[in-house]
Amino acid sequence: MNVFAGVGGGAEGTEDAPTNGGSVLPEVTPHKIAVCQLVHVFAPPAQAGGGTVPPFPFESVAHHNRLGLFLFTLTRSCEDFLEPPLEELLRKLKAVDNLTNGWLCEQLTRTLSGLTSPDDLFDFFDKLRGVLTAPEGAGVEDVLLDPNSQLGVFLRCCILSFNSMTFEGVCHILANLVAYCSSAEGSYDLAEDEDYDTEMSNLMDADIGARSGIFDKYNQGYAAESHIGESSSAHAPLSLHDFDDGNAMKTDDNPTCLRSRWQLEAYLNQQADVLEKDPSSVPLNSFNATLTQLQTLAPELHRVQFLQYLNALSHDDYVGSLDNLHRYFDYSAGMQGLFTRSVSPSQDIIVGKYESALLCLGNLHCHFGHPKKALEAFTEAVRVSQMHVQRPLVSFGPNASTKLRTCPADVCKNLRLSSRVLTDFGNDVLSTSNDNGSFSTSWLRNLSAASNSWCSSSAESRKLHKNDFDNFYYHAQPSPVPASILQLAGSTYLLRATAWEHYGSAPMVRMNALVYATCFADAASSSDLSLAYVKLIQQLAVFKGYSAAFCALKLAEKKFPSSTSSHIQLLRMQLLHERALHRGHLKVAEQICDEFGVLSSSVCGVDIELKTEASLRRARTLLAAKQFGQAATVANSLYSTCYKYNMQVENASVLLLLAEIHKKSDNAVLGLPYALASQSFCKAFNLDLLEASATLTLAELWLALGPSHARRALSLVYQSLPMILGHGGLELRARAHIVLAKCHLCDPKFSVSEDPSAVLDPLTQATEDLQVLEYHEMAAEAYYLKATAYNHLGRLDEREDAAASFKEHITALENPLNEEDSLAY
User: Which InterPro entries does the protein's record reference (predicted)?
Assistant: First the structure.
């Protein structure tokens, strides 16, 4: 029976495969020697005829497997770029060693302290060969370590590296080994830990004395076997692994040894992910000091300079970021910029870089407002990907995001295709190991937390150890899906949410945004995750009002500070502007428009979407101020910009705004062509909710032409009501109810006394919705129509109440008080 057969992907998981000029074999260090000794205990040399399963000193298969998982994570962990000192290794090992009364820790320290000469090291590595070699007569049930497993490859590399060393190198290892053991000497007092004694007495009860005798017996025999030909016990302190948990780690005495090349790259990948997800959690100066130390120890690792560039960029240190970026390209020629670990042939790597360049080019064109050129670049990236690797998934996300501006109907087709590609990816690739070290790192950190809490004196800590650690140990498994693929899969849900926004399905927007925020938060970047929160908060504002939206915004700002998240900053400005317009606080609305103008200036950025939104909000503010000529000028200029850059969705919105401007300026005839054009655009691109809004505006324009057109307007209202009532927000629903009531009241053939509910029911619903939105102008219109209806019915008291509410909203609109309150939430 092979132990951990094939774990880590076999020979492909070699600890230091040549990557970007890295060394082939890992350097032998004291920490690796310690791990080799633990591997020897985990899978001792097999004896002919078989042995006990599990081997001594393990009490069960689960106990044996726990040590195996611990050793696996040690060789894959990337929580730091330096190897841990002996004290830290013993602390973590204690959580695995609790059932053997500290035997593993004691045996490890005795073995390491007994390595005092080159001959000792030679005998030690010669002994390790027996772990990988099956003796004559061994059967299939014998416990062996698979040479192609992660631990087997690690052991083979260490043996080969030692055999390749010079005599001076062996002497250097011995000197480092002395310092490594001295760093933990006299500071690990396991036997005197009262809590440990209490726990062990509860676990082992009356037979602990007999078991200790067995351990003592095997201690003597095992030590003799480990150090044949020399009397090393005199050099080893009896309690080298004893230490007090309260003491600080003696890292100054520990030899500075880097982890393997693969672990270094995984560490840098992990730090790059942290910078992308939450840059505010990374201190600029301290992280730079860490990277400087790593660069000093490994000057050939140019990705450190790339991380320094990312660190400076995320903290708005543009001069430093530019300097680090130039230095990175000067030394590496850009060969290590993509944080990936690939074993592909060089030709595939070149193709991948060409595809990455096309994606970057497409993203830049999209950012600068060149959708046609962006689509060309993305289409070429898909073509190259299909020709060489048959994995065009990477290109679908940016391709779909660009088409959202030009043809949203094609987005779902791209997303469905990407889902099929992801399924194929799972069938082909996910069967192999894609562990990037994150699971191993998390497992070790959890192990340390469990060990520390287990040593504390409270009953609560014992409960934490028994529950939390065991749950993590048994249930948490490394995800076979790489983080980059998870990020792409999650981005499809964001794109679906945006597409459904244009289609007008609010439930689908909420569902896709919730799926992304719930299921892909761990793999998501800070920018994408904040965008999902923004979509959910926007839905709250539209359907629940500003109070609920601002409460959610406060929570989002704690998670994503405005200084680090442009999405949250823009959302705050959008909500404040909308509420100011509804309240009639035009000075505040104009102030926020000025802030939008600053953000969209060429000095701060050239995002075409931000420029479009700034102009759109400027026009709406001018419209609310009844400056119809200036509003029309801004809207016409904006339409020309959107038409130039082929932004069809924005074209439909601007045309609808122009129709609204002409309607409020009492020029309905000129507004009809704009409303009809907007309706045509919406039908062509399946913008269902915007089409319903355009149809409602068209009904208002016909109604403004006189009572003779009331029946036509009513027909258009009925045509748009299903979509509006099913998917529209508070404002759109209230507006539809008001137009419906106006159509009835303007119709000469309609009698309020015969069917009062046809007018009063929609107006009551409208006033309730508008009360939540604090929309004074529209609420005043609704109450005016209610008062008119009650007057026709002769219900004077209700008429007076409606008139009083009308006066209240008109007063708030014409004489706003405490406008500064609109900036608070």
Answer: Apc5, Apc5_dom, TPR_rpt
